[in-house]
Protein 1
Amino acid sequence: MTTSTEWLSQFRHRTPVEIRYADIDMMRHVNNVTYLTYLEQARICYARDVLGWDGRWDTLNIIVASQQFDYLQPVFLFDRLEIRTRTARIGTKSFTLEYAVVRLQADGTEEVCGKGSTVMVTFDFVHNRSYPMPDHWRATVIAYEPATPA
């Protein structure tokens, strides 16, 4: 992953994040662990907005198989922040989401403060095993993000 303008332009989905006082650590910036909760919130909004998730827990059958995050710049209490999310890869039973943590500057410029990814697996909680990604999810993601490799 890079942080070029071209890379950032690949992200259509945006989730605004309000930084809470509790997110700040003794170094006066957002604590490293908190970024993962920001990505989680963006992931849930992406599932709702792109995959059409209805909010029912028995219909969102995905789990995080792995996650990775790079911290590039500190984020502070009153920064305006949004998480950009995109599907970077679709496999048979998994897909990879990429994230950009973007600070929105007062002058209209943007600064990438962090970037990450999660590998998501479609999962049957009743039988405790993965299963192929539903065709309608695959079609919906490709329609929303035509550059996603299937």
Protein 2
Amino acid sequence: MAGFDYSVHPFWKFLKDNYSFEETFHFFGPYAGASVRPHRINADMIRVEMPLLPNNLNIVGTHFGGSLYSMTDPWFMFLLMEKLGDEYIVWDKSARIDFLRPGRSTVSAVFYMPDSEVQHIRELVSLHRKTIKTYVADIIDADGKLVAKVEKEIYIRRALGFSRGDTYK
């Protein structure tokens, strides 16, 4: 059985090297199709917005659940990959979304990864070889009401000594 290369794909490296953060995600099909727009606030924080448009409506005229999840999918993993660097493998392990009310306006979510959390992860991995961390993102509407809550489980380990055939158990 062939192993898996956990490094950033060359296409994403090309986009990162040649385009701004916001421009890079205009090339990403699911985000372009659902009108998802990420904004870099600072090194620790990303804010993602999605207006309610015909291309992301569900059958009853509210935000399509898959688009709500998609707008939250990569950000904790992305922030950790950036902050931990190539010495670590960072991988989405599981996710759960709890739909709390229909999204009828522009929705947004904020993803925050402070340096103190990154340091804590480094310490955990140093002690235990790997760790699984859970993060939560709230999707809110234009009135500040909670539309959905997304829970992401992220697997993290040192890349050194990782065999290409290993899995993240």
Protein 3
Amino acid sequence: MANTTRQYRVADQIQRELAQLIRDEVRDPRVSAFATICEVDVTSDLSLAKIYISAVDDGEDAETVPALQKASGFLRRKLASIMKLRHVPELRFILDDTALKAEKISRVINDAVERDRKLTDNDD
């Protein structure tokens, strides 16, 4: 989404500031201590920021994203006091399950290789 230099700069600053705010200011126990902001995409008019969140495991992901979405108003106000923008974008938190999908694919590949290895060992 970020096409202009300004969009990249705003997205980068939102990512840095939100990471610190989530770590230091959010007190919701549903937010994983291992939550990571993978990416921030900002629309061209800077009205919306999509924040892709990943945690260590599925259970933590399931609770972290809704908890952060509930705290989005608080986080947006904090960002407004930190950032020098006329309007701080609406924050929309989205689960980034890329790492989990990659891990599942890797497991399937490893299992297939192991089965193939056993078949070739039995043929000899």
